[in-house]
Design brief:
The chain is an alpha+beta fold. It folds into two domains: 3-150, ph1033 like fold; 161-203. Helix content is 27%, strand content 26%. The strands form two sheets. Strands 1, 2, 3, 4, 5, 6, 7 and 8 form an eight-stranded mixed sheet that branches. It has a three-stranded mixed sheet with strand order 9-10-11, with helices on one face. Strand 9 (162-167), helix 6 and strand 10 form a beta-alpha-beta unit.
Length: 205
């Protein structure tokens, strides 16, 4: 399972709240909705984008459209920054075309499931490592934060209990993200005499 960062600014206009309220995300480059055809290769993507957007940065367009349509998988988690807020969503389906999004450059979309009851977390309340990753300057980024823990479960093709061992005192907002992904947290104290683990429900069957 992958973890991604997505800025919902198709056409360089912030569309985060309108899109999330519809339980969708969008990438822009709406004139190239032909990219949704499954047999297309990356070279095909490049040719279509060059035809439809001759004045745009082709490498940038190719990177983000290929990621949005092909690399981001069903069940992956995405962090969506919006000002000082960060929304967490799970990808709920494949990319599709929505003609009603033509005026806002949001034709190319993907359905999502909003995590944490759809409520955002404050960016400054997240672990510093995740805050740093959310500073990506472009439309999308691969965030290998929590996703690395989940990828093994996907490869083994069955559900497992997921346990993450973290230092005691982790902020509640960060814990909420992990709990929403069905991850059990085990706190530990690093003392001079050794390490004490607080297993809690992690040992329950």
């Amino acid at each position: 399972m992958g973890t991604w960062g997505l800025r919902l600014k198709p056409g360089r206009v912030d569309q985060a709240i309108p899109l999330l309220s519809e339980n969708v995300i969008a990438i822009g480059w709406s004139d190239s909705d032909q990219l949704l055809n499954r047999p297309l290769s990356k070279d095909d993507f490049r040719a279509i984008l060059k035809r439809d957007y001759p004045d745009e940065n082709l490498a940038n367009a190719l990177e983000h459209t290929w990621r949005f349509i092909r690399e981001i998988a069903l069940g992956d988690v995405a962090a969506v920054p919006h000002g000082d807020d960060v929304y967490f969503v799970q990808i709920g389906g494949d990319a599709y075309s929505e003609a009603a999004g033509a005026d806002t450059d949001t034709v190319i979309r993907r359905p999502i499931i909003r995590l944490l009851d759809g409520k955002p977390l404050a960016r400054h309340g997240l672990p510093q490592s995740l805050q740093d990753k959310l500073a990506f300057p472009k439309t999308s980024a691969n965030l290998k934060a929590v996703g690395q823990l989940l990828v093994y479960e996907k490869r083994l093709k069955r559900d497992y209990r997921k346990i993450l061992i973290l230092p005691k005192g982790m902020r509640a907002t960060a814990r909420d993200v992990l709990v929403s992904l069905d991850i059990v947290i085990v706190d530990y104290d690093d003392l001079r005499s050794g390490v004490i683990f607080h297993w809690g429900s992690a040992l329950d069957q």
